[in-house]
């Protein structure tokens, strides 16, 4: 069994693969996996689209900030954050203080193909998903680029992406494989 020295916070656009890569990474490192969106839904007692609809994006972001802050106080684990979480200066600062941020980067075509499979993306409800994703990515990329590590998420198997990430973490002394 290896040793993880800091929480790994996965950041990036919706559809980048943060949750599925995160689950596989946590299994590979033998640590807990936490999904901020699931934790927000559990705390609010309703689904994210409902939170947006009932209370608006600002209330959702407030809840997200509190939940991520709580999760960052837990022992080192893998944390998948929502697409907009890293845009919040306070959340970004907390992640910076107590975790290693990894931008899971994927091209718009890959994001679009993945988000079309689910109908649970409130930010895509107000127009053409490709146009919205392209605009959001352009707005967010400079901030995502502030992450400690950037990992290209190709359209191939996530296991390859996970192994590349494990190697990058080991190189930086954040993960030590047991002999």
Task: Outline the secondary-structure elements.
Elements: E1 3-4, E2 7-11, H1 18-29, E3 33-35, H2 36-44, H3 48-55, H4 57-72, E4 78-80, H5 89-98, E5 99-105, H6 108-115, H7 129-144, E6 149-152, H8 158-171, E7 175-176
Parallel strand pairs: 2-4, 2-5, 3-4, 5-6
Antiparallel strand pairs: 1-7
Task: Provide keyphrases for this structure.
179 residues, alpha/beta, five-stranded parallel beta sheet, 7 strands, globular
What does this structure look like?
- There is one protein chain.
- The protein has 179 residues and is an alpha/beta fold.
- The protein contains eight helices and seven strands, in the order E-E-H-E-H-H-H-E-H-E-H-H-E-H-E.
- Strands 3-4-2-5-6 form a five-stranded parallel sheet. A two-stranded antiparallel ribbon has the order 1-7.
- Helix 2 crosses helix 4 (57-72) and helix 4 (57-72) runs parallel beside helix 5 (89-98).
- The longest helix has 16 residues, at 57-72.
- It is globular.
- The relative contact order is 0.22.
- The model has no long low-confidence stretch (mean pLDDT 89).
Task: Describe the structure concisely for a colleague.
The chain is of the alpha/beta class.
Structural class label: alpha/beta
Instruction: Calculate Rg over CA atoms.
Output: 16 Å
What profile does the largest beta sheet have?
5 strands, parallel
Compressed to H and E, one letter per element, the order equals: EEHEHHHEHEHHEHE
Shape by Cα distribution: globular
Oligomer: single chain
Q: How would you write the strand order of the largest sheet?
A: 3-4-2-5-6
Strand percentage, roughly?
5-15%
> Roughly what percent helix?
40-55%
Return residue spans where pLDDT drops below 50 for at least 5 consecutive residues: none
